[in-house]
C-alpha cells in the first residue's frame, strides 16, 4: 500500500465516519529520505519505507510502503494538575544514524519516547 493511498484513505474516512484518532498530526522523513514516519491523534506511529525500485530511479514518484506500525502514546491523567493528557503525536524527529539501527523521538507535548525500529521489515498480522 503506498503512502498516498494510505494518507487519502485515512483522511477521507476519518472525517466521513468521525474517527478523529486516525487523523495524521505530524509527518517526518529520516535523513536519507528512505523512511517516512507519521503520527496521528490516536498516538500511533506508522513508518513507511521507500520501494527498492524507486531508490534506483531518481526521477520516480517515490512510492512508500508500510514498514512498521506501533502505539507510541496512550491517554493519561495527571492527578497533581487534574489534567487529561491526550495521546496525539505532536512531533516526530529522527535521531542521527550511528549504526544500522534507526531511532526516532515522538512527543505528545507532555512526554517524550525514544523508539527503535527493527533492522528487518516487520510482518503485520491480521
Structure, described:
The model is unreliable at about 120-125 (pLDDT under 50). The protein contains 2 helices and 9 strands. Helices cover about 15% and strands about 40% of the residues. It has helices spanning about 5-15, 50-55, and strands at about 25-30, 35-40, 45-50, 65-70, 75-80, 85, 90-95, 100-105, 110-115. The protein is of the alpha+beta class and about 130 residues long. Strand 2 (about 35-40) and strand 3 (about 45-50) form a beta hairpin. The chain has one domain (about 5-115).
Structural domain count: 1
**How far apart lie the N and C ends?**
15 Å
Parts with pLDDT < 50 across at least 5 consecutive residues = 122-126
Helix content: 10-25%
Q: Trace the largest sheet across and list its strands.
A: 1-2-3-4
Protein name: Protein phosphatase 2 regulatory subunit Balpha
Keywords: Repeat, Signal, WD repeat
Signal peptide: 1-18
GO molecular function: protein phosphatase regulator activity
Keywords:
single chain, 126 residues, alpha+beta, disordered C terminus, four-stranded antiparallel beta sheet
Entry summary:
Helices cover 16% and strands 39% of the residues.
What does the secondary structure layout of this molecule look like, with pairings?
Layout: H1 3-17, E1 24-29, E2 35-40, E3 44-50, H2 52-56, E4 64-71, E5 76-78, E6 83-85, E7 91-94, E8 102-107, E9 112-117
Antiparallel strand pairs: 1-2, 2-3, 3-4, 5-6, 7-8, 8-9
Amino acid at each position: 500500500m503506498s503512502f498516498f493511498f494510505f494518507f487519502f484513505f485515512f483522511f477521507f474516512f476519518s472525517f466521513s465516519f468521525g474517527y478523529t484518532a486516525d487523523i495524521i498530526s505530524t509527518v517526518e522523513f529520516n535523513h536519507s529520505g528512505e523512511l517516512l514516519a507519521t503520527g496521528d491523534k490516536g498516538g500511533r506511529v506508522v513508518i513507511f519505507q521507500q520501494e527498492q525500485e524507486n531508490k534506483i530511479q531518481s526521477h520516480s514518484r517515490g512510492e512508500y510502503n508500510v514498514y512498521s506500525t506501533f502505539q507510541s502514546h496512550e491517554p493519561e491523567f495527571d492527578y497533581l494538575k487534574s489534567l487529561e493528557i491526550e495521546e496525539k503525536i505532536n512531533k516526530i524527529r529522527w535521531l542521527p544514524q550511528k549504526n544500522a539501527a534507526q531511532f526516532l523521538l515522538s512527543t505528545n507535548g507532555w512526554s517524550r519516547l525514544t523508539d527503535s525500529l527493527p533492522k528487518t521489515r516487520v510482518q503485520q498480522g491480521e
